[in-house]
Structures are given as structure tokens and as C-alpha cells.
Design brief:
Largest sheet: 5 strands, mixed
Keywords: Hydrolase, Protease
Order of helices and strands: HEEHHEHHEEEHHEHHHHH
Shape: globular
Family: Belongs to the peptidase C48 family.
Structural class: alpha/beta
Organism: Heracleum sosnowskyi
InterPro entries: Papain-like_cys_pep_sf, Peptidase_C48_C
Radius of gyration: 20 Å
GO molecular function, one term: cysteine-type peptidase activity
């Protein structure tokens, strides 16, 4: 028996629709497999996304009031910094995927960057910050009215501060605030993190108290901070910080010692860079073809038409053949043909 994947599940119209046990099996892989090759549809969707001459402000992803324009999703191109709405879309998909979690997996909740961009802006007063924070929380729970904070094991806050993405996870299982960044940080940087985290904690604790959850607020305010160290951390890669963030959100289950991302160490030549480039394409495909994307059928139809056009011109065969080769020196072929416009 082959365990079905979430994408094979029938499209649902209501978030509260129950999912069969087969779709919540621990054998269902919910994260992107970095060991897999590019599929034909990966290529088709990617090339359709980045093609020249299209309306940059066309909405290519829509899920209720969460949306993303072509221009912004195209920041998944290698060597580009992600636009914040890509992370917000990813948070929405992560929350949706939690529907398929097995009974053994921790229950995770993913907020969006709106709880950091305004609420942690040093140019605003603390009162102004908190007002924005409350507005963001209210909007979030309008989208997820059945979500109960106290029921979750891990609560994720994707942070965008000083043009850098990283992740803060309220780990209720370990009773810690886990700070997760792709860059190895020294004491000076930790001081900056500490300021951000103190302000985030303060806003969150105050919000919980106002929601008559004083006992919970008091408990999390006393939790220690843990700055995680991972083998795949980098020295100064700020360009790919958004992609690292998405991978961390996708794979972290609260157990740092047994955490598996499949990411290579930075010292492994171009291997880690190649993995990050692959994730950019795989993530674009995952977002655009997600069953929650209201533009999904349009995207698949148009990308198939565009693929057929390229295939007819003989361009795609060369790209696909060259990019499946594993030798690092072939990376330049893939980079020039797969990631660029016509």
C-alpha cells in the first residue's frame, strides 16, 4: 500500500473538514525532499513564473486574503532576497499542512512576518508597536478561528529585522524560546537578538493576559532563550536567509538534537548553494500548485502550455539533462538556463 500525499487528497472547501488517518500517517512526507530530482512540472511552473513580458502584479497565489504577486514570488530566484509575502504564504501553507500531521508529531502554529515588521520596529514607540501587534494577531485569528494557542506544542514567529530573516520558536515542549538563524552569531549579534526577543515576548505576554490567559502568559515569560547551533549554519550568507527560514519552518519539530534538514554544511563547496537553489524552485512549485491556491488550475494550465512551447523549441531538453547531472562544474549550465528569463 502506498501512503497518499496531501496533494493527492481531494480539495477541501472548509478548513475544519476532517482528514482520514491515511493522510495523517507518520510515513507521509510533508517536507520537500532534497534528494529528489527536478520533475517536469517543477521546470514548467518555474519557467512560467519567471518568463519575461508578463504582468509583474498578476496574482499567482491566492488563499482567502493571503496572496502573492508574480513579481514577489519571483524573488525565489537564486541570489535574490525574498520578499516578505513569500514567507507569509509559506506560513499559510505550513498551517494547512498541519492538518495532515500524525498523532506522534508535535502540533505547530505558524504566524506571519506581520508580527515582526511593525511590532519590532525600533522607530516606533512601544505602545505603537503593541497596537500593530494586536492588529496582526486579530487578523490571524480571523483566518484561523478554530486555532487555540494553548493547544500547540510549537509556535513559530518568522522574524524580519534589519533586512534579515530568522526564526523564533516558542518551544512549549522544551520550555524554551528557540532562536534559529542560518548565520552563526557571536555575542554582539546575540545582544541584538535579545532585544528583539524581549520585545516580542513582552507583546505576546501582554496580549495573552488581555485574553484572560494570565497563567499561560506567566509561564512563557519565564522560559529561557536557546540559541540553536546547527551544522549547516553559514558565516555570512544573508542572501539566502529567507530560504533557510522556510526550510527551518518546514522541518523543525522542537528536537534540535535529532533535527534533519538534509542541508549540507557550508564548507562543502557549492553543494549547499546547489541545495538552496533547488529549494527555491521546489518551493515555488509547492506554493503555486498547492491545493489551497485558488489560482492553481490556471497556473498548471498556463505552465503546461508554456512548457510545451519551450519543448517545441528544443530548449527544455538541454536544461533538464544538464541540471540532473551531479558534478558541481555543471552548475553553471543550470544556473544560466534554468533560472533565467527567455
Amino acid at each position: 500500500m502506498v501512503t497518499p500525499t496531501p496533494e493527492e487528497c481531494e480539495k477541501r472547501t472548509k478548513r475544519e473538514t476532517k482528514i482520514g488517518a491515511a493522510y495523517r500517517s507518520p510515513y507521509v512526507r510533508r517536507d520537500i525532499n532534497l534528494g529528489s530530482k527536478y520533475s517536469t512540472q517543477d521546470y514548467a511552473v518555474w519557467r512560467w513564473l519567471i518568463q519575461d513580458g508578463k504582468d509583474k502584479y498578476e496574482r499567482v497565489f491566492q488563499y482567502g486574503n493571503v496572496f502573492c504577486y508574480r513579481k514577489h514570488l519571483a524573488t525565489l530566484r537564486p541570489s535574490k532576497k525574498l520578499y516578505y509575502c513569500v514567507v507569509d504564504v509559506w506560513s499559510a501553507l505550513m498551517n494547512e499542512k498541519e492538518t495532515y500531521k500524525s498523532a506522534e508529531s508535535p502540533l505547530r502554529l505558524f504566524f506571519d512576518t506581520g508580527l515582526s515588521i511593525g511590532p519590532l520596529n525600533k522607530e516606533k514607540t512601544e505602545a505603537e508597536q503593541y497596537k500593530i501587534f494586536v492588529t496582526g494577531m486579530n487578523h490571524f485569528f480571523e483566518k484561523y478561528p478554530n486555532a487555540k494557542i494553548k493547544d500547540y506544542d510549537l509556535i513559530f514567529f518568522p522574524i524580519l529585522a534589519s533586512e534579515h530573516f530568522y526564526l523564533v520558536c516558542l518551544n512549549l515542549k522544551a520550555k524554551t524560546w528557540d532562536v534559529i538563524d542560518n548565520i552563526r552569531q557571536g555575542k554582539a549579534a546575540n545582544n541584538e537578538y535579545a532585544f528583539i526577543l524581549r520585545r516580542l515576548k513582552k507583546h505576546f505576554v501582554k496580549y495573552l493576559k488581555e485574553k484572560d490567559m494570565t497563567w499561560f502568559a506567566t509561564s512563557i515569560s519565564r522560559m529561557e532563550t536557546s540559541y540553536l547551533t546547527m551544522p549547516w549554519q553559514t558565516l555570512q550568507n544573508v542572501t539566502d536567509c529567507g530560504v533557510f527560514l522556510m526550510r527551518h519552518m518546514e522541518t523543525y519539530k522542537g528536537d534540535a538534537k535529532n533535527w534533519e534538514t538534509q542541508l549540507k554544511a557550508e564548507k562543502k563547496g557549492n553543494l549547499q548553494k546547489g541545495q538552496l537553489d533547488k529549494l527555491r524552485i521546489k518551493y515555488a512549485h509547492a506554493i503555486l500548485t498547492s491545493h489551497v491556491n485558488e489560482k492553481r488550475e490556471f497556473v498548471i494550465k498556463e505552465s503546461n502550455l508554456f512548457y510545451n512551447k519551450l519543448a517545441g523549441e528544443g530548449l527544455l531538453k538541454l536544461v533538464m539533462e544538464s541540471s540532473q547531472k551531479k558534478h558541481p562544474r555543471k552548475r553553471n549550465i543550470e544556473g544560466t538556463r534554468l533560472f533565467e528569463d527567455e
